[in-house]
Amino acid sequence: MADQATIDTVQSQAGERYKYGFVTDIESVKAPKGLNADIVRYISAKKNEPAWMLEWRLQSFERWLAMREPDWAKLNYPRIDYQDAYYYSEPKAKPKLESLDEVDPKLLETYKKLGIPLTEQKLLAGVAVDAVFDSVSVATTFKGKLAEAGVIFCPISEALQKHPDLVRKYLGTVVPNTDNFFATLNSAVFSDGSFVYVPPGVRCPMELSTYFRINEAQTGQFERTLIIADKGSYVSYLEGCTAPMRDENQLHAAVVELVALEDAEIKYSTVQNWYPGDENGKGGIFNFVTKRGDCRGARSRISWTQVETGSAITWKYPSCILRGDHSVGEFYSIAIANNFQQADTGTKMVHLGRNTSSRIISKGISAGRAQNTYRGLVSAHARAENARNYTQCDSLLIGNRCGAHTVPYVEARNPTVQFEHEATTSKISDDQLFYCLSRGIPAEEAVTLIVNGFCREVLQHLPMEFAVEAQKLIGVSLEGSVG
Amino acid sequence: MMLDIRDLHANAGNKAILKGLTLSIAPGQVHAIMGPNGSGKSTLSHVLAGKPGYEVTGGTVTWQGRDLLSMPAEERAAAGIFLAMQYPVEIPGVTTINFLRAAVNAQARLRGEKEPDAVTFLRRVKEEREKLNMSDEMVKRPVNVGFSGGEKKRNEVLQMAILKPALAILDETDSGLDIDALKVVAGGINALRAPDRSFLMITHYQRLLDYIAPDFVHVLAAGRIVTSGGPELARRLEAEGYDGIVKVA
Is pTM beyond 0.90 here? Predict the structure, then answer.
């Protein structure tokens, strides 16, 4: 009751329509609807893949047929008919592109609307972009500079052609093709994604960023990303996403595998802004993602930072396997769920090596009728002497009809382990809101200000250009339903 | 007149609190409203600032020729009304400096003015906080989080100094302050007195008026102003108590 005024303020404000709700009219090449071994063969053939890759895909598909969709997450969604979707589509474009002039102008227009600066500006900003449009990568820049440093950064389909041994050595070693329902599905039908290899001792000369985008209606998007940081190397990878407005639910099941060898460090940042559905809960992306990093070498370090504001359903637990002694895993997360969005997200920190440490900072924001769950596992195996974890899990509620849930699992099989867990739940109060109003700050801006303050510790871990974008995104995501 | 309150009636919940309050404030004047607990002092300040939860059931409030009661709270702020709160609110994670900048920019936008540039803004904050003996570290801390009572009130005065309102409503600004803190806060407020700035001080005690001299003193009882006078009225109140004055009135 105390918050009724807040809720009313909020509800009275018109919701901002999803900014990126447009569809580019480009003819696409599609595989027939549905999923069977022939579709898997079709995808593999389209990519001109080596035989072992097809074998792996088919094996994954067989395995998948015997698996059941997991139902342990706090998510409610209609049954997905996996036969009622397309598993491969690509925009019709010229097969080989030497420069931007050769790219379909409509595609470039789409990028422009998205604000993807695939231009000289990027060079000045020192960011290389590997733009994935639907399932096919159509433009890659700054390869020269990266090649000079010996860094391989290309679509995984290209890596399969040019560096098959590297791909074969690492693919599926972090997320095996038997891992879980969605990862196994991805292993069978993945279309494309990014591949990064940083050689020993190399500090990647620029932030790597890929913009994924779903464009084709009813096309499942199955990205596969593999990043390997060899001994003593460093790489920072940024990933940002938007999708057009559609009524049908779009399935997305990505897999990201990170491998950090001795003394290597990988920083992986995500801003996820896929179509969340409308204010009545219609439409929106179903996002089932398996992201896992393997701190394989001693003193290696993997850091996940995510800002999750989109998708109708989010099922995502970027995790770290702390295998190497003295390795470090980090997870910094902001998850915003508004209207009818449901997010079940968190992390797993699996301590295998000695003196490993991990840190989890999770900020969940729920508004409207959304449900937001943090689900996290921290475990130490018998050998993991002196493992350390610090977990801080904060939830912020806006209004009376949303929910925040925290489900931490903690397992320690070694007596020297020290795990700390802190959790808070708070609400934007009417008094806070009025305090802002009385200083001239309108309600929506006040909410953004307060939420950005709440998320500050996580925003600090984003690369600079992403931090600004993320702050704006937080404002946009909360418009219309928050108070 | 800058502010003209005529026969104002207001409810909180279903309870009538203000029952026909009339008051006019001209530019540059300092008015004090004194009254016993439950007389409607805080309700008056909240209704003027536009706090949700109150229902105006009668009367008018005109502010610089505009119908104040039809304006949303943030527009009242942009139109120059500032409420220094009795209990300043904590906002975790938002630094005072960011909060102030958001407020200054939002008000400028609402008034159709250009937002001040960062350098000018920061210089002004530095000047004003130094006058109030506030450290740089203090404005970089989250708004009011972990502040003492005195620090919170100083933070209110700092905001007032930066936002430069035409009417500052001080709601029980002296409450919870020891004598040293009160002197600092009162000094800050006195420094802001100007021919084009009016003050409405709401207080239970005479004590604040020893440091900030009012031009007019009004006694509020049962939702109405029962008597008005000069500074001498406050002293009489202190000597005789509310009971005597209210009964006589």
Answer: no
